[in-house]
Amino acid sequence: MELIAKAKSLRKVYGSKNSVEALKNIDIEIVKGEILAILGPSGCGKTTLLNCLSGLDNPTSGEVIVLNKNLNKMSEEEKTRFRSENMGFIFQFFNLIPVLTALENVELPLLISKKYHNLPPSEIRKTAMEWLKKLHIHHRAGAYPSEMSGGEQQRVAIARALITNPKVVWADEPTGALDTKNSEELMEIISTMNKELGTTFVIVTHDANVAKKAHRIIRMDSGLIIGEETKKI
Ligand SMILES: Nc1ncnc2c1ncn2[C@@H]1O[C@H](COP(=O)(O)OP(=O)(O)OP(=O)(O)O)[C@@H](O)[C@H]1O
């Protein structure tokens, strides 16, 4: 079993006075090709864990290895580059750039990544359009985020997350701002993309219905992993 990421003895303490121990000695392994859900109540440390695993935040102590690279040993600049070349991100409130159209939002990761600096703009546009088509949202290519529904914005966000062909996509409450129908559709899209592309997805959620679409569920409470289930789907 090939590992995408692994964390050992991870601790995260916020603040010095009245400090909060958000993660208490977490060990976790993320397997290549899986959809992993991290499930737990509000405040249990899910976002903190995701941010430490993706290198968006630094743990207080413990080790994080992603794609065989030790994040602790990278500078912030190296981590930024590593993220842009190997990871995709999906957020609860989509985080699209409001002054860019759907198409321009999807083009952005290719425009800013050094890895793709040789690609001509016409090729970037074509690739972004193909991604919008794959996610059945190409008819809104020229729309701005404020002109799109939540479900539409999240499709655009997925296209943006996948356009660089990342090894792993980190999704923080990706269905949190969607209704039941759109949440189900989103999880369908994630399953399809996982099957078609082999991309590993790590999804943080408080919603058991969302988690049950994952191959594996890790349960968290009060900064600890309290259980794990592997499912056949
Ligand atoms: N920047 C911060 N400064 C201080 N405390 C923080 C900070 N971020 C998170 N915390 C605290 O750390 C704990 C874990 O928070 P975290 O956001 O990781 O939980 P969560 O499970 O993702 O919650 P939610 O589902 O509500 O987003 C909480 O007690 C929270 O108040």
What does this structure look like?
One of its GO terms (molecular function) is ATP binding. With 233 residues, the chain is an alpha/beta fold. The protein has helices spanning 46-54, 76-86, 102-112, 121-134, 150-162, 180-197, 208-211, and strands at residues 3-14, 20-31, 35-39, 61-66, 69-70, 87-90, 168-172, 200-205, 216-221, 224-230. The chain has a single domain, classed as Rossmann fold (3-Layer(aba) Sandwich), CATH 3.40.50.300. It is built from seven helices and ten strands. Strands 6-7-8-3-9-10 form a six-stranded mixed beta sheet. Strands 2-1-4-5 form a four-stranded antiparallel beta sheet, with helices on one face. Strand 9 (216-221) and strand 10 (224-230) form a beta hairpin. Helix 3 (102-112) runs parallel beside helix 5 (150-162) and helix 4 (121-134) packs across helix 5. The chain is globular. The model has no long low-confidence stretch (mean pLDDT 95). The site of adenosine-5'-triphosphate has 13 residues, from strand 2 and helix 1. Adenosine-5'-triphosphate (ATP) is lined by residues 14-15, 20, 22, 40, 42-48, 206.
Q: Which labels suit this protein?
A:
233 residues, Rossmann fold, six-stranded mixed sheet, four-stranded antiparallel sheet, 7 helices, 10 strands, transport, ABC_transporter-like_CS, ATP binding, ATP-binding
